[in-house]
Specification:
heterodimer, A: mainly alpha, Serine Threonine Protein Phosphatase 5, Tetratricopeptide repeat, B: alpha+beta, Beta-Lactamase, Helix Hairpins, five-stranded mixed beta sheet, 46% helix, 18% strand
Chain lengths: 200, 531
């Protein structure tokens, strides 16, 4: 992967917004089974809202600065648990990036790792709980181990697929108990969509 | 903190470095505090979301317990709740591996819960105000403590937890009561109809739908006047609906008779109570009618009145005759021929009385369910022959003409009872048709049934009376005023006896369209003997 500058982060976030919009209905449909049926809408609205936010930042803003600002915004505007969780992940990643003007792939691996750690801490979740973490953690592990972006995304894909057979142990899906098995976790799916937007 | 001294560059630099390090430490601490605060807020949000998700108490308890165990980093936990209105606590949920606090499923007092928790080395958190609504028992992992941040979140939520569980319990109680009420209403044999302020039906039970001949729920939402059609049925004026009345006055109507039209437009007499139901959460009033079909009761009442009137009349007439003749015999000096005449009249009146009493006993017997029949194979011809023998004694056997009654497959009937039916119908024909006219008994068979007909050449029974004469105490209008005596019970008894055999009995015109009456009936053939 090439070196990533602030402008690339802006383009990445725009791709995220477009991809989430494309899969908005699918995400909401998945959430209707396990949660309260608003994940697609919440994510779409949240990612639309950050466009104006990014316009307010000067063109030379560093990737870390932009990610922290976007995380802050998502945490406070996106409804449901996904807002604070994705917000935390982005802020943690932004903190690792610090004020560096450009990101290389090893740094991005450390950012993914920090994002996964922050999300696990905030959501009090571990791998296998049928959450966003089931997609994010394997991706972070792959990147940290020096895998290519493509192989990292494959790890995320496998993690997302693994949530289908899992019994939910966090969030509203807890209510379903064993009945939660057999459905993909909407958070794990949206996380894969966001990671896939990285590998353009 | 060091105070930088002017003029000492080295110390100045060292002090500045210290200052920077201290500030950085402070920032880091503030950042970590903020992180922990945000973590706690998010944890509280997730717990609240679960609490607000509703569900049955047992489900809610296990889900919330799982969340709390995770939140506090506990190895296991159990949740103890008090059923509304009771003192002791029961285990509502326990995570996998939670040590039991007492014998399985047994309720514990507050004191026992705290003792047991202490004995089992559990952290015990009361939920709600004193006295608590419930307890959380949490076990820390081996050699570790519970997460203080998570524990703090649970502490902060303990009132919310108590309220949520109480709410879930109340919802469950309410739901159970609602189901019980629905079962009662749906299972009731009385028609129950509930309307809103605009007299639109909001509830109608199966008994009511059956009474009115309606499809399931077709009536809900429609105005009750359209569904019950009580105005058309003549129950009351358009502005005198009892349901509207109770909603207006607020006073129940304990009993009122009314009428409705069923799907075929037939009037059904109903009676029952009307009351104003307690207003629902929106403050709207509802009225309920609990009605019973009283058509049968009314018919029975009419029958009873008719029975008493007829029986007392029929009993009194021969009694008065007997009284008169015995008086004459006792007090007058009479010629032997006259005495004999009077005694004969007394004998006739006594005969009439015993017939009446026998018929009333027959009816009482017919009401018994099931009617005991001694069914045996018997030929129709032999029943007719026996009847002919009885008629020979009174010299009327010659009037009896039979067509095709011989060589028929055997019947399977109570010979005594069916003999009584033939005797009664033929007796009527002899009584009402002109003297010396023939009475024709004929029979045909088809499949499993024998159809018998008895024709006379009397005046016939008017069309309108034909169904009625088969009911008790109804006599044809034209014979009621005549001098021919009768109780109006004979044909009714015949019909009931034939029906008890599974057959039918009806009155119609003669097949040759001459004046007279044809009484027809069907009787079961011996199974396997049919044509």
């Amino acid at each position: 992967m090439q070196t990533v500058y602030g402008q690339d982060v802006r383009r990445y976030l725009a791709r995220c917004a477009a991809a989430i919009e494309r899969h908005r209905e699918y995400l909401t449909r998945l959430d209707a089974v396990l949660g309260d049926g608003d994940h697609g809408d919440n994510m779409a609205i949240g990612l639309q809202a950050i466009r104006e936010l990014l316009d307010a930042y000067p063109g030379e803003s560093s990737p870390g600065e932009l990610l922290r600002a976007v995380g802050q915004r998502l945490a406070t505007t996106v409804g449901g648990a996904s807002g604070p969780l994705y917000g935390t992940a982005l802020i943690e990643a932004g903190l690792v990036a610090g004020s560096a003007p450009a990101l290389d792939w090893p740094l991005m691996g450390r950012m993914l790792d920090a994002a996964a750690n922050g999300l696990a801490r905030r959501g009090r979740c571990v791998i296998g709980d049928k959450t966003i973490l089931d997609t994010l953690r394997p991706a972070a592990d792959a990147a940290m181990a020096g895998d290519t972006p493509g192989r990292t995304l494959m790890a995320a894909w496998r993690g997302m697929r693994s949530t289908r057979s899992l019994v939910a142990r966090r969030g509203l899906a807890l209510r379903l108990g064993a009945r939660s098995a057999g459905h993909l976790d909407p958070g794990a799916v949206s996380c894969f969509i966001l990671l896939a937007a990285m590998v353009h | 903190m060091l105070h930088p001294a002017r003029g000492d560059g080295a110390l100045n630099d060292a002090a500045r470095d210290d200052r920077i390090a201290s500030l950085e430490q402070e920032v880091r601490r503030a950042f970590e505090d903020a992180q922990r605060e945000a973590d706690a807020m998010f944890a509280q949000y997730q717990l609240s979301q679960l609490l607000a998700s509703g569900g049955r108490p047992a489900e809610l308890a296990s889900v919330v317990l799982a969340e709390i165990v995770r939140l506090c980093g506990a190895a296991a936990g159990s949740l103890w709740l008090r059923e509304p209105g009771t003192r002791p606590f029961r285990q509502a949920a326990a995570s996998f591996g939670a040590p039991p606090l007492g014998p399985e499923n047994s309720p514990l007092t507050q004191y026992e819960v705290s003792l047991a928790a202490a004995a089992a080395a559990a952290n015990l958190l009361p939920l709600g105000e004193e006295p608590p609504e419930g307890f959380l028992a949490l076990w820390p992992p081996e050699g570790a403590q519970l997460d203080p941040d998570g524990l703090r979140v649970v502490q902060l939520s303990r009132h919310e937890l108590a309220v949520a569980f109480r709410g879930a319990q109340l919802r469950e109680t309410l739901e159970r009561e609602r189901q019980e009420l629905t079962a009662i209403v749906d299972g009731a044999t009385d028609a129950i109809i509930q309307v809103d302020e605009a007299c639109r039906i909001v509830r109608i039970n199966p008994a009511a739908r059956q009474l009115l001949g309606l499809a399931t729920d077709a009536a809900v939402g429609r105005r009750c006047a359209e569904v019950l059609r009580c105005v058309e049925a003549g129950a009351h004026a358009e502005d005198a609906c009892p349901l509207a009345e109770v909603m207006q006055s607020g006073r129940p109507i304990a009993y009122r008779e009314a009428a409705v039209l069923d799907a075929e437009g037939a009037v059904i007499c109903v009676a029952g109570g009307f009351s104003q139901a307690a207003s629902d959460v929106t403050g709207h009033i509802r009225a309920t009618a609990i009605l019973r079909d009283i058509s049968a009761v009314q018919a029975l009442e009419q029958l009873r009145e008719g029975f008493v009137a007829t029986v007392s009349h029929e009993l009194r007439t021969p009694l008065a005759l007997i009284r008169g003749y015995t008086d004459s015999l006792l007090h007058l000096e009479l010629e032997p021929a006259e005495q004999r005449h009077y005694l004969e009249r007394i004998d006739q009146a006594t005969e009439r009385l015993s017939t009446l009493v026998k018929e009333i006993l027959d009816i009482a017997h017919l009401q018994a369910d099931p009617l005991i029949l001694e069914r045996r194979p018997v030929s129709f011809a032999s029943l007719v022959a026996r009847l002919r023998g009885d008629l020979a004694a009174t010299g009327q056997a010659a009037r009896l003409v039979t067509i095709g009654v011989d060589d028929l497959p055997p019947l399977e009937v109570d010979a005594g009872r069916i003999g009584q039916v033939l005797e009664n119908i033929v007796g009527n024909a002899l009584k009402y048709a002109p003297p010396d006219t023939p009475i024709t008994v004929a029979a045909t068979v088809s499949a499993e049934w024998l159809t018998g007909t008895i024709d006379d050449e009397g005046a016939g029974i008017p069309e309108a009376d034909r169904a009625l004469v088969l009911e008790p105490f109804h006599r044809g209008r034209h014979v009621r005023e005549s001098s021919i005596q009768g109780t109006g019970l004979g044909l009714y008894i015949c019909r009931r006896l034939v029906e008890a055999h599974g057959g039918r009995l009806w009155v119609g015109d003669r097949a040759d369209h001459r004046a007279g009456t044809r009484v027809s009936f069907t009787l079961p053939l011996l199974s396997g003997a049919g044509a």
